[in-house]
């Protein structure tokens, strides 16, 4: 079904109400390999039974923690086969630290629909409000849908962010587990692209790939642990573009530059000659 640009652009998304518990937060952090340093006090803050600190990237899974069905790409004016879709970008801006337990509601809208010719890019923004009526976080994301272009829309911008031209202040290797995607999918993303070899091959990959949002969370956690003394409450925002795939069991190399109250990060795959996996990565923080 071709994209209906007039219907899609600016369309409001259904309001969603959801809640989460400390166990949900712990499960998410375990999906990011928290606890690898099992005696480190900073590491164990992510896994406290009563008040685990919450990495801001938890915002990407909080509304879907109890979902057990594969996601559908279904918006007003947009119906796309899941096998054609990959994540394009993700940004989380936290307006206050995310509590370990809470209730919230979401309101959102489609903000951009770009026609890339052979593909389409669809972006949306969602504002999450806590049960006290105050905003908790704002999420902005985009998807890249292969074969869905040609509907007559504008092509949109094409920009690349360059990394600083100096030696990074930090360089960290983050290994992933062979079962990393199978762990992470318990946070609500049951896309078979990450668990079903036949589905992955039909989508053009030799094997299931790691969730882009898992890579996103892993890099955020790595930077937080390395530069911010594992204090997730200092992170005020995190954004990235998904530049390539990561297969479970591979290693992420994070090169980190500190520039004022922001970290600039390059994330690559060690085993494949440092092929990019995330680009335009920025983490903002408080002193």
Topology, pairings included?
Elements (H helix, E strand, L loop, with lengths): L4 H4 L3 E9 L1 H10 L9 H4 L28 E3 L2 E3 L4 E10 L7 E14 L3 E12 L4 E12 L23 E6 L4 H5 L12 H6 L9 H16 L7 E8 L8 E9 L2 E8 L5 E11 L2
Antiparallel strand pairs: 1-5, 2-3, 4-7, 4-9, 5-6, 6-7, 8-10, 9-12, 10-11, 11-12
Into which percentage range does the β-strand content fall?
Answer: 35-45%
Instruction: Report the CATH architecture.
Output: Roll
Coarse morphology: globular
Over the alpha carbons, how many angstroms does the gyration radius reach? Answer: 18 Å
Widest beta sheet: strand line-up:
1-5-6-7-4-9-12-11-10-8
Number of DSSP strand runs: 12
Q: Please provide the ordered H/E string of secondary-structure elements.
A: HEHHEEEEEEEHHHEEEE
Q: Please bin the fraction of helical residues.
A: 10-25%
Q: Sketch the major β-sheet.
A: 10 strands, antiparallel
Provide the number of structural domains.
Answer: 1
Q: By helix and strand content, what is the structural category?
A: alpha+beta
Question: How would you classify the quaternary structure?
Answer: single chain
CATH class: Alpha Beta
What is the count of DSSP helices, taking H or I runs of 4+ residues?
A: 6
Low-confidence stretches: none
Termini separation (Å)?
49 Å
Could you state the CATH homologous superfamily? Hotdog Thioesterase
What is the typical, i.e. mean, pLDDT?
A: 95
CATH topology name, in short, is Thiol Ester Dehydrase, Chain A
Protein name: 3-alpha,7-alpha, 12-alpha-trihydroxy-5-beta-cholest-24-enoyl-CoA hydratase
Domain MaoC-like: 162-267
Pfam families: MaoC_dehydratas (PF01575), MFE-2_hydrat-2_N (PF22622)
Organism: Nocardia cerradoensis
